[in-house]
């Protein structure tokens, strides 16, 4: 069973994601801030991370993504950034950080499932569009 | 409804009530169950809502039907959407959560409140003085003139604020990297520094500093004010010899970005500190067109969840600004409601897909 890590400070959003994915065949892990998310990503090596961009605390989603992608040990983890920031420049910042896909809130549960399936089916290095 | 779907709806702050064709409530989510005493039951008997639910449940209206109804508990108008329920045979009534207005709007009111507080009382007092003068037909006294001058100064400050903030909604979710933010504030404050023969230096800057979230314009304006304040007081500082430099430092302390603006003797001495944060206290000379003052700079920083403090002694004074790193904890409340709403809208499709079994991912 593939591991998924959800890093999102809002408990409601984590709950919605958990409910969306509960019938899918994934082992779901959660973290509520960037520092904890980075720690869990290094420890668990999930196949994919759903990573909120705007999180309070020492690390936001962009920083977590940058650190994961710079580290050869974690660079292979697929990263989907979840954000309310949908402007072109913001998307560019996300892609510059190395994310594999970018979901703009409010996102559809169907879109979420499709993006995850697409990324996990894709060969290493391929990004969802 | 399955436990997954039920839990999903329970996570939504909007009140969700599913009504069958006979008008009977067959499901309520947690938010609705908690709101029946809060006016929801009164709202549900409104004829417009009952008719909309009936039309949708019987398939005569595909929905969504949007309604805006007065809450019977006097809580103002409630936005309501009626859509087909996820099972395809009932109607789902979604009463959108009230009081989900962005915390940022509340902060906008705080700024307005700040202005009101510092103008209302003196204006009222001055009006009383003018009335008394009219009744006594006496000549204005020196105190009256001084009072009028003080009022004009306050009004000028308000005009400065309008010049600075005019027309801009407070936007609190820009991702701001510390270095460009500070460098821009330094460039903005340069002319004031040059006028006072003061230089500005960025020293000891850690390039890996985390971003802060907030309004770029507001924060830059606050930082510029601090720099300009240092520059204005640079030459007049007791014991200052030769060129004066404002040093700007930045470092991370836990979940805070700390900015130090330091200038030996360049800021007002410790004896002047008490008056430094009295809002709209008169500065020497005519204010520049967009001078906002340290009190408002402090307020801007506080609105971003941070603090601005003066510390030091007569010879060594600095302004210390602390800003929380990462996103503010209040900025996504409204978005959460939108996200939950989007989930509610697509829930029926998600259920249908689950019933149909795994499908190939849709192309993007």
What does this structure look like?
The complex is a heterodimer of chains A (129) and B (364). Chain A is α/β, with parallel strands linked by helices and 129 residues long. Helices cover 42% and strands 21% of the residues of chain A. Chain A has 5 helices and 5 strands, in the order βαβαβαβαβα. A 5-stranded parallel beta sheet of chain A has the order 2-1-3-4-5, sandwiched between helices. In chain A, helix 3 (61-70) links the parallel strand 3 (48-52) and strand 4. In chain A, helix 2 packs parallel to helix 3 (61-70). Chain A is globular and about 35 Å long. Chain B is of the alpha+beta class. Helices cover 44% and strands 20% of the residues of chain B. Chain B is built from 12 helices and 12 strands. In chain B, the strands form 3 sheets. In chain B, strands 2-1-5-4-3 form a 5-stranded antiparallel beta sheet. A 5-stranded mixed beta sheet of chain B has the order 7-9-10-12-11. A two-stranded antiparallel sheet of chain B has the order 6-8. The longest helix of chain B is centred in the first third of the chain and has 34 residues, at 103-136. Mean pLDDT of chain B is 71; it is low at 99-111, 166-171 and 265-289. At the A-B interface, helix 1 and helix 5 of A face helix 1 and helix 12 of B.
Helix content of chain A: 40-55%
Shape of chain B: flat
What is the averaged pLDDT score of chain B? 71
Number of helices of chain A: 5
The spatial strand order of the largest sheet of chain A comes to 2-1-3-4-5
Distance between the termini of chain A: 25 Å
Largest sheet of chain A: 5 strands, parallel
| SSE run of chain B | HEEHHHEEEHHEHHEEHEEHHEEH
Q: Averaging pLDDT over every residue of chain A, what do you get?
A: 89
Side by side, the strands of the main sheet of chain B go: 2-1-5-4-3
- Weakly predicted, low-confidence segments of chain B: 99-111, 166-171, 265-289
The ordered H/E elements of chain A are EHEHEHEHEH
> Biggest interface, and residues per chain?
A-B, 39 and 41 residues
């Amino acid at each position: 069973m593939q591991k998924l890590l959800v890093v999102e400070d809002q408990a409601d959003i984590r709950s919605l994601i958990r409910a969306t994915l509960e019938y899918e065949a994934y082992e779901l892990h959660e973290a509520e801030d960037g520092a904890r998310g980075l720690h869990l990503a290094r420890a668990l090596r999930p196949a994919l991370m759903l990573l909120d961009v705007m999180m309070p605390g020492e690390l936001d989603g962009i920083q977590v993504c940058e650190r994961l992608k710079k580290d050869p040990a974690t660079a292979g983890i697929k990263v989907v950034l979840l954000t309310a920031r949908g402007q072109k420049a913001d998307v560019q910042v996300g892609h510059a950080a190395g994310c594999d896909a970018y979901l703009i809130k409010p996102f559809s549960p169907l879109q979420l499932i499709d993006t995850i399936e697409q990324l996990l089916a894709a060969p290493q290095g391929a990004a969802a569009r | 409804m399955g436990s997954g779907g039920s839990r999903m709806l329970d996570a939504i702050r909007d009140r969700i009530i599913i009504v069958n064709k006979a008008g009977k409530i067959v499901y309520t989510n947690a938010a609705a169950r908690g709101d029946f005493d809060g006016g929801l039951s009164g709202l549900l008997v409104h004829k417009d809502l009952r008719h909309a639910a009936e039309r949708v449940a019987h398939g005569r209206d595909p929905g969504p039907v949007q309604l805006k109804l007065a809450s019977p508990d006097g809580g103002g108008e409630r936005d309501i959407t009626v859509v087909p329920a996820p099972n395809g045979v009932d109607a789902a009534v979604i009463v959108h959560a009230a009081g989900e207005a962005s915390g940022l709007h509340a902060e906008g009111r705080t700024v307005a409140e700040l202005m009101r507080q510092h103008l209302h009382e003196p204006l009222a007092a001055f009006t009383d003085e003018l009335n008394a003068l009219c009744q006594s037909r006496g000549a204005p006294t020196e105190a009256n003139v001084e009072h009028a001058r003080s009022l004009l100064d306050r009004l000028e400050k308000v005009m400065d604020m309008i010049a600075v903030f005019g027309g801009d909604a407070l936007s609190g979710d820009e991702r701001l990297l510390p270095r460009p933010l500070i460098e821009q504030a330094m460039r903005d404050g340069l002319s004031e520094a040059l006028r006072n023969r003061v230089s500005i230096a960025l020293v000891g800057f850690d390039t890996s500093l985390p971003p802060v979230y907030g309004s770029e314009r507001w924060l830059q304006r606050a930082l510029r004010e601090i720099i300009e304040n240092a520059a204005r007081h640079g030459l007049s500082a007791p014991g200052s010899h030769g060129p004066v430099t404002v040093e700007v430092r930045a470092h991370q302390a836990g979940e805070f970005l700390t900015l130090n603006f330091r200038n030996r003797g360049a800021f007002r001495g410790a004896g002047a500190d008490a008056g430094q944060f009295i809002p709209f206290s008169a500065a020497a000379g005519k204010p520049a067109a967009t001078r906002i003052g340290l009190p408002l700079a402090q307020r801007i920083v506080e609105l971003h969840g941070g603090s601005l403090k003066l510390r030091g002694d007569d010879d060594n004074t600095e302004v210390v600004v602390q800003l929380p790193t990462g996103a503010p904890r209040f900025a996504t409340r409204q978005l959460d409601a939108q996200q939950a709403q989007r989930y509610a809208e697509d829930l029926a499709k998600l259920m249908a897909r689950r019933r149909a079994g795994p499908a190939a991912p849709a192309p993007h």
